[in-house]
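Example record used in the benchmark description.
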Amino acid sequence: MRVRCKFKLSTVTERIGSAPKYDETGKHAGYQECSMWDAEFQAARGGTGDENSEFWKYTPSGSLKLATIERMPWQIGKEYYVDIIPAEGDQG
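Model output (structure tokens):
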């Protein structure tokens, strides 16, 4: 079963976090400080007759927060689709 949601990016915030560090053999060697980006999305809403009204019927509210190590080319105020599908088994 697949569910497609539509979210609008509301904020992107930079913060200091940590990422795994590896030695020359590929063995885990602790963590290192790095920039991280928190992106917060809200369920898309809209007026009568537009695509967002259809999404609202099935996902009237919701939020999504992602943290990435690289800043993504997402734009605040722009809407994005998020597909939710099973990781294993029937992909419907």
